[in-house]
Amino acid sequence: MKLNKNILELYFKLLPVQIFLVIASGLSNIINGLVIGNLLTASAMIALGYVGPFSNLLAAVATIVSGGSGILCGKYMGTGEADKVNSVYSNALIVSGVLGAILSVVCFVFASPIASLLGAQAETLTDTILYVRGISLGIIPLLMIPAMMTFLQMCNKSNFSLFSTILLAVFNTVFGLASIKVFNGGIFGIGVATSLSRWATLLVMFIYIRAQKNLVRFDPKGFEKEIVKNMVLLGSPASLAGILYSIRNMFINKYAYNTAGDNAVNSLAILSSAGCFYDSFNVGILNSTMMLASVFVGERDSRSLKDLIKISVIVGEFLVLPKLLISYLFGSNIAMMFGAQGDVISMSRDLLILYAWSAVPNMITVTLMAVYQSLGRVKFCNLLYPLNCIIVPLICCAILAPIMGIKIIWALYFWAEIATLIVFYINACIQKKGVANSIDDILYLESDFDTANKYSISIDKIEEVVTVSKYIQDFCLQNGIDSKRAMLSGLCMEEMAGNIVDHGFKNDNKKNTIDVFACVENDEVLLRLRDNCVPFDPHSKLQMYTGDDPLKNIGIKMVSKIAKEMNYQTTFGMNVLMIRL
Among 229, 30, 63, which Cα is nearest to 144's? Predict the structure, then answer.
């Protein structure tokens, strides 16, 4: 199976960062679980398990902003409107700050009813209330940090995102140990330490972004209702999923307790603590696919979209293997790391194994969800999540668990994914009005998504530049463009592709490729060149030389005069040049 080299390289550039971000951002749960499980009481560990769904709920609220803004910015980049990214950034931080402040006050004041709603009882109720109040102090940074990391990655600052997540984990560890060893703060101190670590990390991120000249800028007066509306709409499926997953986990805690007592709730707390590793690959696939899909949707590039789906599924299924191996070989050890004893060890191992198996169908689910969400199929995605998060889990818990025991509750994650994929397929068959048997059938793109008059090819040798230039000239003539503009279109492609080869290929120590795309629409020619070379901005080259040096960059000068529009941007480290004639 031949895959697009540029997309594959770009995917592997984004994916490790996304996986590590999930692991690092979830290190707070791991650290808190290790500290509480080994230094505090069993009641405190069970309280952590009850609060787990609540923490996921808060994280789900954060995805409204981070997910929605990421998709919106990707589309703007795809359409060549990179100037709007600053506006999205400002609105993302404004919404995160206001919403975070409201939730922080509500959660602190109403911690007691929240703890009861989460299922805490008797001796665990007090610990649960204290922990909710502790983490409520850090809800503002909890919402703002993911949004800021989205923009850092779009501005090719993924390394700083990684540094920030590591810093968050270090702060959480130091503050957490200090709260117990020095201040004897108990579980409330652990919650406060988590909040302080988020505030400290947010401060570092603000200082870094303000110090960089070419990064996004926050404008406190930049509130735009339309941007917020689109951001919330696009981010709602992922957020709804998180909210429903949190509700699911709440009633799973309840049914697990009714089926197997405190041991089952303790096992779920261990899964919640270790979940950042177990979910990191799946969430990494989801986020990486969504980021790239939003750009390709903006570019209306179905070829790249289909290549992306293939890459996402193949890579995702390959990443399932380490989770399964770790669960089978070290599941008991993981449970004991979090203080598990007796029957809790074997019960936790069974849960970890069955949860790992759910990743096999989930990798396909998250890929399709990411692409559908980028295509704007919000209603369909929002209809699928209740099936995945509520209907199938309730059937397993309420109907099957009394008959089959705790293992059917552990298996519900797998069967929920299978049910979701079945609905995906049925929907594709309905759209096709027949049997769906290809990626095109699963995608069922609108008829106007791709222009009918298009040409695309990938080149990796200088010898191919002239040949492709002739192909583009012929393509334009065949689609009604006059001979002068057809000739100029081929010439523009040849000049700019030649510059990429001369300045990019030779200054890079890797295999380089240029994806060339041309289309004719509304009597205009659109050329797009996407490459994986070192950055080469034609606008900066034009500004570098004055009229006293007329022969410098003469090809770029010619193209800039010929073209109606010439737009350059870097998208996740990939250079994209768009020329309209």
Answer: 63
Distance (Å, whole) CA 349 – CA 271: 10
For the chain, the residue count is 581
Determine the straight-line distance between the first and last CA of the chain, rounded to whole angstroms. Answer: 35
Tokens found for residue 454: 């298009």
pLDDT tens-digit series, residues 446-466: 766 766 577 777 777 777 777
Distance CA 122, CA 115 (A): 11
Q: Which secondary structure element, helix H or strand E, spans residue 223, and what is its range?
A: none
Backbone angles phi and psi of 307, in degrees to 5:
-60, -40
Angle made by CA atoms 306, 310, 313, in degrees to the nearest 5: 135
Residue 536: closest CA among 495, 564, 565: 495
pTM of this prediction? 0.69
Q: What is the CATH number of domain 454-580?
A: 3.30.565.10
* pLDDT one-digit tens code per residue, 522-576: 778 888 887 777 666 665 555 544 455 544 555 667 777 777 777 777 666 677 7
Nearest to 496 by CA among 543, 459, 544: 459
Nearest to 252 by CA among 266, 241, 268: 268
User: Tell me, what DSSP letter sits at residue 506?
Assistant: T
Q: Cβ distance 538 to 560 under 8 Å?
A: yes
Helix or strand holding residue 518 (H, E): strand 514-521
Q: Domain residues of the chain, as ranges? A: 5-432, 454-580
